[in-house]
Design goal:
mainly alpha
């Protein structure tokens, strides 16, 4: 049983981190919708968004800890991007994505600090680092470890499709709002 748990942690924690962080991105996009969601529903969506972000960061920390503990990467490669001895680019993408996700979480937690003085645009810019972080994590997850099982590839494809669809809908809504609500 311990061996199966260790095997799951070795390869499953990273997948759970990506799926959780993908869900975080999706719920973050949903929380901005003003056409379908009322303010109470947007507040609920924001709560789900934050909870999933915490879960995703927890799975990410577990993923990093397991990989370092099993000597699949070094503590240096886990903290300094692009320094891994065997796969510097792919492991570096994961390290960089981790830092970006942490920065997004910190700016999310400190959002109120950005509300005064016209700094909400700065908050949005910093918080949008989630998109390149998520893309880097997706590439890292698909190519850095062992060949992905079919269910993992399917989960990643669903993640990609979901984020692409939600982001497309969000951008279309923004364009409509900029044109004064016309389709």
């Amino acid at each position: 049983m311990a061996e199966r748990t260790q095997e799951f942690l070795d390869f499953g924690a990273g997948v759970l981190a990506l799926v959780s962080l993908t869900s975080t991105v999706l719920w973050g996009l949903a929380a901005t919708d003003r056409r379908l969601l009322g303010s109470a529903h947007r507040l609920l969506a924001q709560g789900v968004h934050r909870g999933l972000a915490v879960a995703g960061l927890g799975f990410l920390a577990l993923h990093i800890w397991v990989k370092v503990a099993e000597d699949r990467t070094s503590p240096t490669a886990a903290t300094v991007p692009f320094t891994d001895n065997t796969q510097p680019f792919l492991i570096g993408l994961g390290t960089l994505a981790g830092y970006l996700f942490i920065a997004v979480a910190v700016t999310g937690a400190a959002r109120s600090a950005f509300t005064g003085g016209g700094r909400s645009g700065l908050w949005r810019t910093l918080h949008m680092a989630a998109y390149p972080a998520w893309g880097a994590a997706l590439v890292h997850g698909l190519h850095a470890g062992r060949p992905a099982a079919g269910w993992v590839t399917a989960a990643y494809a669903l993640c990609l499709s979901g984020v692409a669809l939600a982001l497309t809908l969000r951008l279309r809504t923004r364009r409509r709002e900029a044109r004064g609500g016309r389709p």
